[in-house]
Amino acid sequence: MEGLLEGQQTGKRKWMYPLIRKGTYYKWRSIISYFYLIFFFSGPFIRIGGQPLLLLNVIDRKFILLGQVFWPQDIFLFVLATLVFIVCVVLFTIAFGRIFCGWICPQTIFMEMVFRKIEIWIEGDVKQRKKLDAQPWDREKVLKKGAKAFVFLFISFLISNTFLSYIIGSDSLLKIITEPVSTHIVGFISIWVFTIVFYTVYSHIREQVCTLFCPYGRLQGVMIDKHTLVVAYDDVRGEPRGKLDRKHEHDGERGDCVDCGLCVDVCPTGIDIRKGTQLECINCTACIDVCNDVMEKIHKEHNLIGFFSENMIHKKEKPSFTPRMMGYTAVISILIGVLCFFIFSRSEMDLTVMRSGGLLYQEQPGGFISNLYNAEVINKTNKNKEIIIKPEDPDIKLKYIQAPTKMGSGADMKMVFFINVPAAKIHTGQMKVRLQLISDNKVIQTVKASFVGPIND
Ligand code: SF4
Ligand code: SF4
Predict the structure, then answer these.
(1) Which helix (H) or strand (E) holds 368?
(2) Is a pLDDT exceeding 90 seen at residue 37?
(3) Ligand 1 centroid distance, CA of 325 (Å)
(4) Which residues are 404's β-sheet partners?
(5) Cys bridge to 375: 162, 276, 280, 415, which one at CB 3.0-4.6 A?
(6) DSSP-derived 3-state class of residue 86
(7) Residue 367 Cβ contacting ligand 1 at under 6 Å
(8) Ligand 1 near 426 CB (within 6 A)
(9) What is the mean pLDDT of residues 9-21?
(10) Ligand 1 within 6 A of 231 CB?
(11) Does the Cβ of 284 fall within 6 Å of ligand 2?
(12) DSSP helix/strand/coil, 437
């Protein structure tokens, strides 16, 4: 906060040089981040039943989750799933504050667990980095800064490619990479635009994404309350703080905080958690680790900084499952129930039939009246399918202009056909014809198509 305030006061940003101290939480964050990174980079290449694990193709409005294909017709499922996700995040925030930011958010994982480590590897520890930034552009600075920029750009390029393959699919990405640029100009430009964006974020914008731009961080203030477990400083135990000295060591006048300032030094957003919960805190737990280290050295209990609610510190209450949390849990349970119902009752294929506009009916030999139709079938399964479309009424005939062929998994297919209805069946000039979509000798779906003909009295 001091850094931020200083920045706000001077109008100049204070560059962060957070100290890295490897405590228990840091080790757990590292383990989670390794899993996360493996999953992120391998995700586009994992196939389930021939389909990607995850595809968010907003361009073609095709979404795949765990190998299940979702088409525009299923968009409400996606809206519902998004709603479930948002309510889960709200509940999680009410219960545990902004812990998502420090432990799961890709911005923090890439910044602290990838780019920061590379920076330290190339430029050295905090002291060395500060010295390097302050010195003139000599050979050492050019070499180190150049090497860092190159590695950052390379990793940003990898992230950009992976990110894009979650949108267009790894096969399409491979085509962009292997085929001439002129045939994939939009894809090529997209890769480089994303690369520059990621590079700028991780090399320059950094923690400002969390402290200035992220809307979730701003909203946190309205979600957390006195029961929320957040990274907090136990001021009852810690104050009055003061440097460790022999005079005060045993007199009981001082709190446990020895005012070493290390909790500020390790903070990636530059705040002093001892000033209370702040919007800029991403709950990364770096200050807990370093303070526990200090407490060990001065033979005091851990968790002067820890996961506490305000009521735990000031009213000595135990963590509780509040009515507010119960309410959100109930909403989530209902939403998940509804989502599961729709997912499991979802048909494996989807047929839409439309009568060709602007065309009247035609009289056919044998006393039949015909209408022309355009139809589309979507195969939502992971298998190849052969289909036929058949009128439910055996007296009604269907004649293909564009017949169905074998459908690949996740494919959609268009058909054109005439429906011939015996004139004697048409009484009011309009009727509905029921059509069955049949695959593997099973009626998958029945739809109604409007049919027009002469008015027979
Ligand atoms: S690290 Fe702990 S002891 Fe040191 S200043 Fe921060 S709260 Fe006080
Ligand atoms: S105050 Fe602590 S938990 Fe919050 S961002 Fe800073 S180091 Fe991380």
Answers:
(1) strand 368-379
(2) yes
(3) 32
(4) none
(5) 415
(6) helix
(7) no
(8) no
(9) 82
(10) no
(11) yes
(12) strand
Smallest CA separation from ligand 1 atom 2, residue: 291
Architecture in CATH of 349-455: Sandwich (2.60)
Instruction: Check pLDDT > 90 for residue 253.
Output: no
User: What is d(CA 407, CA 387) in angstroms, rounded to the nearest whole number?
Assistant: 8
**Which residues 6+ apart lie within 8 Å of 92 measured at CB?**
99, 100
- What torsion do the CA atoms of 199, 150, 112, 260 make, to the nearest 10 degrees? -120
* Residue 232 near ligand 2, beta carbon < 6 Å: no
Nearest CA to ligand 2 atom 2: 287
Q: Tokens standing for 4?
A: 């931020």
- Which numbered ligand comes closest to the C-alpha of 232? 2
**What is the C-alpha separation between 160 and 231, in angstroms, rounded?**
32
CB atoms within 10 A of CB 216: 14
Q: How sure is the predictor about 346, in pLDDT bands with cuts at 50, 70 and 90?
A: confident
Looking at all shown ligands, the one closest to residue 263's CA atom is 1
Cα separation, 63 vs 69, in Å, equals: 6
User: Which pLDDT belongs to residue 197?
Assistant: 97
User: Range with the lowest mean pLDDT among 51-55, 107-111, 374-378?
Assistant: 51-55
- Give percent of the chain with pLDDT exceeding 70: 96
* Strands, sheet with 442-455, edge to edge from the N-terminal-most edge strand: 387-391, 428-439, 442-455
Please work out whether the CB of residue 260 comes within 6 Å of at least one atom of ligand 1.
yes
* Separation of CA 306 and ligand 1 centre (Å): 12
Instruction: Locate the ligand 2 atom nearest the alpha carbon of residue 283 and give its number.
Output: 3
Cβ atoms 236, 311 nearer than 8 A: no
**C-alpha 192, offset from chain centre:** 21
pLDDT digits (tens, 9 = 90+) for 371-409: 999 999 988 777 788 999 999 999 999 999 988 888 887
Q: Domain limits of the chain?
A: 17-70+105-206, 349-455
Pocket test for ligand 2, best of 269, 293, 304 (most atoms within 8 A of CB): 269
The two structure tokens encoding residue 299: 């033979």
Q: Which of 380, 447, 387, 385 is nearest to 415 (CA)?
A: 387
Measured CA to CA in angstroms, residue 414 lies from 58, 135, 188, 374 at distances of 21, 67, 31, 7
Residues 6+ apart with CB under 8 A from 80: 335, 338, 339, 342
Residue 367 Cα to ligand 2 middle (Å) = 82
Give residue 256's identity as a one-letter amino acid code.
D
Query: Ligand 2 atom 4: the closest Cα is on which residue?
Result: 281
Sign of CA dihedral 410, 411, 414, 420: negative
Backbone φ and ψ of 439, nearest 5°: -145, 140
User: 12 falls in which pLDDT band (50, 70, 90)?
Assistant: confident
Q: Which residue lies with its CA nearest to atom 3 of ligand 1?
A: 257
